[in-house]
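Sequence in, structure out.
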Amino acid sequence: MTTRIRFLLQHDAALPGLVELMQEMQTHYRVYCPPCEEIVAGLVDRPAAAEILLCEEEEGFVAGFAAFCAIYPGPGLSPGIFLKEIYVRAARRDRGIGEALLRALAATALSRGFSRIDWTADASDTRLVSYYERLGGVPRPDKLFFRLDGEALGKLADGAAIASYGGSVLPS
């Protein structure tokens, strides 16, 4: 079967296939999945820096995807990529799709002059950790992953203002 890796376009014909795959992903992770219309709106109106690589096996059939964005600065003040999500359809696993997506992401990083790709992984998923290590990924036990969301995000943002002229955050 022929596969191709390509970037998702804003009003892409593959959107229905990607929505279906994202629904599968949410079920796999046992987390809330918004309605289809919200998923489509999120994909079409995603931030400009958010990019998605698709793996298509035929027109419109999305077998996997990798969502990422550029980050700056990194070591030596160079840019890099943060891989937010990579997911391969359950029925298509163990066919090299994940590796093909990561290879395409690595080629993207190098073609843009970026020095690295960072991502997170579930530390308890030893099969996944071993897979990433086989591809050359190195766990960083000296780093912690933090998240600020929900009430904590609102609490921290409360009273902050962003100056329109300099972009700095100023207390009100």
